[in-house]
Amino acid sequence: MKNNGSKYCLLLGTALLGVYIQASSAHADTVNVTDNGKTVSGNVTPMVQTNKDEASTPQTTTDWSDPAKYQNDIPVQILGINDLHGGLETTGSATIGDKTYSNAGTVARLAGNLDAAQASFKAANPSGTTIRVEAGDMVGASPANSALLQDESTMHALDAMHFEVGTLGNHEFDEGLPEYMRIVNGGEPTKQYNEAEMAYPHVKTGINIITANVVNKSDGQIPFGMQPYLIKEIHTSDGKVARIGFIGIETTSLPILTLYDNYKDYDVLDEATTIAKYDRILRKKGVNAIVVLAHTGVATDKDGNTQGNAVNIIKDLYKIDPDNSVDLYVAGHSHQYANATVGSVKLVQAIYTGKAYDDIIGYIDPTTNDFAPNSLVSHVFPVLSEKDAPNIKTDTNVTAIVEDANNRVAPIINKKIGEAATTGDILGRLHNTPTRENAAGELVVDGQLYAAHKVGLPADFAMTNTGGVRADLHVNDDRSISWGSAQAVQPFGNILRVVAMTGAQIVDALNQQYDEDQAYYLQVAGLYYTYTDQDDPNQPYKVVKVYDQHNQPLDMKKTYNVVINDFLAGGGDGFSAFKGTKVIGIVGQDTDAFINYITDMTNAGKPIAAPVMNRKIYLTAEQLANYDAQTQTGKEQSSQNTLDSQDNEKQSNGHSAQPTTPTVALPTTAGQPAQVISLNTHSEHQATVSANNQLVDLTPAQTNAQSQPNAAHQALLPQTGNDEDIALLLLGSSLMTAAGLTIIDRKRKRA
Questions:
Q1: Which residues contact 42 (CB under 8 A, 6 or more apart)?
Q2: What is the pLDDT of residues 26-74, one digit of tens each?
Q3: Which residues contact 95 (CB under 8 A, 6 or more apart)?
Q4: Most buried one in 110, 195, 229, 552, CB count within 10 A?
Q5: CATH code assigned to 417-614
Q6: pTM for this entry
Q7: Long-range contacts: 15-19, Cβ < 8 Å, 24+?
Q8: CATH number for the 35-403 domain, one of 3.40.50.2000, 2.60.120.10, 3.90.1150.10, 3.60.21.10?
């Protein structure tokens, strides 16, 4: 019986170990690849490999495929951009790989850089074909020289740059899909705009806009006669013929990225499922070289990791159809640089506002209508300034389009609307504090709160999505602020409304900033709050204390009036707490509110200044506990003071101490000076407030904690398995070991 027990123990341990190994193998990533580089079978979770971009121009790139190896194939170049946002003259830094390029951008330089890239390709591939594509958000959130012309100047520039194929982004819906299609097709305006727009030439752009996953709710058809895909037939000078297919994809996040009225008539179908569907259709037509133009985000970080929604979509595509024939995925939406290979799919994104472009070169085998194995190479290059690349010519035709647009809108945008207190721009979301505050954003919500009061609507607070604050507020050297500068900050013309919200709903809205890795966050006016860490990877921070501008705690059951835009009212950026709130009244357009605020403050002798950014206060758990303890001590001491208020002798013996409260500079609102209350972070180190209302006198460790959320949430250690698997392995191994030792011991005794 004892011998059998040892055997059973050994068998049980072996079985448990086998179960673990089988479970582990079921989770393993397996990819089987055919000779032409296509994944065809297996439990597919494709590998993600980042592609390095070290060169600044195609001419200096050394890893292009050798044309001599593909003499029987057809050379094809895809030049792509994303998220132009009407940036006709927008410049800025572009970080690609390990390098940062300054003064990158403008459409005239973009055109010149694209032409230079195409010329380099043609020099090595005389029979080659170049196709220029875009991945959405060409329009919307635009500077005045595009926005005042309904972005028609941008579409004219794209046409002059010979872009052939594009897809829809969320900003193509900013004024409704009918208006965007009117612009694409060159139709006359359907309503009255400013004089500059009404006189602007309304010309068909010639760009094929494709979308596969936006369909009418009424009949399931793609709206406005758009097609889900486009097949381009390529004929070479030496008689070869090949075909390449393009599939257009919109982000399924559209409902939280635009106004309800703009998307309510449409369904946005799952990206991966839609790609798989039309990939199969194209293959049945004999088209195996397939490019996806998708307005879905991705990023390659400084450590060389590539991740994002686009990566997940490609992985889902492999799960749906391991035999898919997608070769290239041109991404957009997240405004970041990316270059990677997911499975066998090249994945790229060229930052935004024309600061970079995609350059992908490959060779299509005319016998298979697919890219030859290992021939496709992808890169992202900066749009180099004239100073950095004087040999690259600025496109004169595109320059003329921009100059014409500037001349048409100049009387509007150059009009002075107010003055700043000092010279120097008031900075926006590219210059956030660690708590996600920025001066331009807080100036915007201060103006919205003021606008509500100006029209006689009761409003306690104002909140806006930071994504709607599009630029720094530019201040001229004479401290003047122009209409165009203010419009660039608030370009959408969203409608402001005052809505009723309970304190609990407001806290819910504030907490919704801290999911999705703080991708979406708010700027607030009329209140300030404290937040701290919590043990939830999906929402690592939580709001714990909220106060109004009079330093009164928010009552969770009380109803307050909050100014928000109609984008947030529809749950935009995932802020569902604002949906369904009762409308108290309409304020007007956010663009007008901001412009009028600047004018009114200036006329009142209060030139515009950057607000003190102290509306979001981060405390570590330890700091918060100390604060709560000090507050409780203060309450007890205050209570004792009340009991002893008639006893002067007891008061003189130390019973008159005041309650201990945090020290923060309260937000400055229109017409009111900043208020100050005190804050003790640790008993031995007290924070004080300087003359400019900034927290000072913290120890270095406390200063870091005060300004930077818990580092544990920023650098989580990687996990190589789950606890259940490890426990199962240990149990099986232990049982096997116990059984083995028992058998050895018995053999020794017998001997």
A1: 30, 31, 32, 322
A2: 333 333 333 333 434 446 689 999 999 999 999 999 999 999 999 999 9
A3: 101, 337, 351
A4: 110
A5: 3.90.780.10
A6: 0.74
A7: 15/732, 16/728, 16/731, 16/732, 16/735, 17/729, 17/732, 17/733, 17/736, 19/728, 19/732
A8: 3.60.21.10
